[in-house]
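[Automated response] Your request has been received and processed.

Submitted sequence:
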Amino acid sequence: MTSTHNAWLFRFTVFTAACTFVLLGAGGLVTSHGAGLAVPDWPNSYGYNMFLFPPSQWIGGILYEHTHRLIASFVGLLTAVLALWLWGRETRGASKWAGIGAMVFVLMLMGVRHMGVYQALAVLALPVIVAGLVQFFRRPDQLRWLGVVAYAAVILQGVLGGLRVVWLKDEIGIFHGTLAQLFFVLICLMALRTSRWFAGLNREGGGGFRLHPLLLATTVLILAQLVLGATMRHQHAGLAIPDFPLAYGEWWPATDPDSIARYNQNRMEVRALNPITAFQVHLQMVHRLMAVIILAAVFASGWMVLRRLRWRSLAGKLGVFWMVLISVQVALGAFTVLSNKAADVATAHVLAGALSLVTGAMLCIVYGRSPKSAPGAVLSGLSERERTASALATGPAT
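Generated structure:
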């Protein structure tokens, strides 16, 4: 494996991450507009090959769903190229060509446009993801295994999206949305690993890796919050609680059968497909409570990072960005309720959540690779004159 920085590989990975972010937005608009079944068949579109579907028929909900499919196909192609690039760059001998051949063969199978083929590929993707992660954690310097994981994950993600349509299962939509967030995190972490910053750490010896429990716990909480959000969005019951910051005029609303019946009778939504249930009210309240906990945890994490590392360091900048982003995310969550789940606001809320998760994951890595000793952390990156002045000011250690 070569450890030299490849600027074009980094740019391509960043471009793939950016396209994935656009894909998340397109998927969010599909769910927000209730257009997931606007195109009722898959992998075709109203009997047409997806890529030959006439633009004259891209109207209404079809526009959102079909555009989502096309962007997803493009991201899948980018991921395949990225996986091939990494495998070819880091592998030698027969293994190199065997791996490239297998990836190209799978890419060709994707063009068969038959449900059985896609289901078989999705089943095979699961053990490939597990094996790729195991290999990467054994040899973290070999990024090619993350490329394999990303390739398998994007196939699984695409098939889940298609099965959600043909099987009419909202539960699949929850897994589809969650895997989309995790895939975005994976591509962004790959972009970080291919960056000049990370290559510089490797040249300097790196100093090992230490995962901070507060950063990890906060990031896991955000992931759990996104799963809760996906669960609420894919139940298609509209707003389980229509007011904010109170809930039906209370800090914790009643959920007895009479109260639930009254909530459904008095609701003003016209797009809600399913009635409100007590479970959905409790789910919404847990989501709100989690938002408060995450807000406090992110600010505690950001303050900890700024206290131990210079704010101009990469970790410090990520910490500040995380605090600002989570504040925006909470505001968007409130506005989603107050706007009666306006599609653009709800989608922005989803995107801010994805960025919050990615920022937490990247901060875990960046902080873990940064120097931690208090004097060194504060003085790292300063000029020789500034370090000397600081040493004279503090005096010798006792």
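Summary generated for your ticket: The radius of gyration is 24 Å. The chain is about 70% helix and 0% strand.
If you did not submit this request, please reply to this message.
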